[in-house]
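Why do we care about 3D structure at all? Because function follows from shape, and shape follows, mostly, from sequence. That is the central idea of this module. The next example makes it concrete: a single protein chain, its amino acid sequence, and then its structure expressed as tokens.
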Amino acid sequence: MLTKLAMYVERAKVISGSMQMSFPVVLTKAVVANVFFGHGIKYFSLYSLAKEPVARFGGYMTKKQLEPIQRQLNSADGKAIADSKLAFYRKCVEYDLPTPEIYALLTKGDARAFGGLVPVVSNAAEFQKIVAAQGGDRSFVLKPEEGYHGKGVRRFRWVGNRVAYSKDGVEHVEDPQTYLDSLFAEAEVYLLQEALQPHEELRSLMPGAGMGTVRAVTVNHAQGPKVAFVCARIPLGDNVSDNFVGGQSGNLVASLDLATGALGTVYAPGAVHPAVLTSIERHPLTGLEFEGYCYPRWDEILKIALTAAAKFDCLYTAGWDIALSTRGPVLIETNWRYDIDILQFAGQRPLKDEMLSALGVGGAAAAP
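And the structure:
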């Protein structure tokens, strides 16, 4: 208890200093947000609740309020498909939906448990054969089969029968066995995928190796699927994943206008503390001015979200991660328990009432 209180005090000092507000006021508001509304200090920071009147705190929805609703609305089959990247890939292939190709499944476990659609690789020789067969000096992505929040995602190049990758700005080259050993020390099953490149029209927004995505939340109403909420996740530097992770990743996040794809305010992690967001006007690497920038091929992105929602009708509501690659929009993954936090801090506004309305659920179901 004392440790948590000390953490709140230290974080409140950072917030009050960043926002030039009274420390006692910030600390009191932070405690009220936690005790009465379920918003911990991280979300108190991310939502900039120090600047909000306490009466608005209840308008921000929490994960604990949203997840039971998502769990009830989505079918067991739909949740199982969304939780498995391999199952999701199988369905995309079945429905003829664009998604990154999976070249193989890497596992140190029983290969017989996985079969059918893609080869299963369990040793360095097989790994080398699969990668080399794709030809040339190419890039690949590895994802834990049941990973989340971008955890464990790796990107590498195949150069002269060796694995080359960048980490913390340093180039590393390893033999396949050493690389596999490091992989399996973290997870037992990985998907080996093609590494997509951002579309040419996105290069001023995404100049690095990472592929950013649009998070599009859909709802399958009786009248047909609708896109209810969108936001943009923008990777920086050597980051392979575009996940924001409460500012810990160093990536950017922004709201998007649903009708036009225009960027709203773009937020970066704070310099003093990553959970205290800072709005920025230009891309820190390319100098792109964000005001007036519209996400390219916006109609195509919305169309693939709606098409996917219609095909995956086992999911009443889902959060689709859609990348605009050099070959057009592609589905990266779907999430049946998509986070409310990224939508709220991207737009810096409460979404509880809007979310409940979009899902067709009464407010009582989301009481604190």
